Amino acid sequence: MERPRAPVLLVALVGAVTALAALASPAAAQSVNRAAIDDLNTQLLYVALPLTLFVELTLVYAIYRFHDNDDPKPTVDDPALETTWTAATAVILLFVGVSAYFVMANPYITPAAAGSADVATPEGADDLTVEVVAYQWGWQFTYPEANVTTKNRLAIPADRDVRFELSSRDVVHSLFVPKLGIKQDIFPTGGSVARTRATKPGEYNLYCAELCGSGHARMDGTVVVLNESAYRDWLDERA
Q1: Domain span including residue 147
Q2: Stretch 95-118: mean pLDDT, rounded?
Q3: Is residue 114 part of a domain?
Q4: How far apart are CA 33 and CA 198, in angstroms?
Q5: Distance, CA of 137 to CA of 217 (rounded, Å)
């Protein structure tokens, strides 16, 4: 019987893990929300890659070493090894939990529970308020400071804190802007809030991420991030 090609498998495995590690550092984020999410993903990836490599190497070794064992023996109890393995798992899970907690506690990621006015806000937040109304199947954006209302096209200034006050005319919707790291459910009772501070001008896709009826698939829009002067010109044109 031909022996497994363990060296070939090992080289392929190390190459795959190395390629994943090279992709671990994401491109520059377009908002503080997206940056926080990307940083968490990178931290978890640097923990997951060594674990993956260790498990797969152990598997390849076991296949190579014991594939033709005609008289297998039961595994011998090893309390020290079991204790070490359990403790290492607990440390890893604690690291994941603490890292995720600090991201979820970020006021840009979890701005407030519905209806709560006691949640801390980031320094300098709420410089701009936009009222967002979702309906089957579109979006309405109102800028109270300029008495401007648009549909399906949202413009916000770069490098400025923005607060979205969310409400729905009918059913549950969800505001989702992947590139900006914004995702917040919107309820007919109102009270939902989302926050962001975009850092890179450009156009980004906006979607409803909650199945809301037969027109859900076409309930999309565009978020335009402008520098401050261009944003003011945009508002003046519509006012």
Answers
A1: 128-238
A2: 76
A3: no
A4: 8
A5: 9
pTM of the model: 0.75
Residue 111 lies in a domain: no
Q: What is the CATH number of the domain that holds 209?
A: 2.60.40.420
Q: Which residues contact 72 (CB under 8 A, 6 or more apart)?
A: 66
Structure tokens at 15: 């190459």
Looking at the fold, whether 169 and 93 belong to one and the same domain comes out as no
* Pairwise CA distance, residues 74 & 51, whole Å: 25
Residues 6+ apart with CB under 8 A from 18: none
What values do phi and psi take at 221, rounded to 5? -170, -170
pLDDT band at residue 19 under the 50/70/90 scheme: low
Q: How many CA atoms lie within 13 A of 203 on its CB side?
A: 4
Residue 181, pLDDT above cutoff 80: yes
Residue 15, beta-bridge partner list = none
Query: Taken in order 162, 156, 215, 167, is the CA torsion positive or negative?
Result: positive
Instruction: Write the pLDDT tens digit of every residue in 182-210.
Output: 999 999 987 899 999 999 999 999 999 99
- Based on the fold, state whether residues 89 and 144 are members of the same structural domain: no
| pLDDT for residue 113 is more than 80 | no
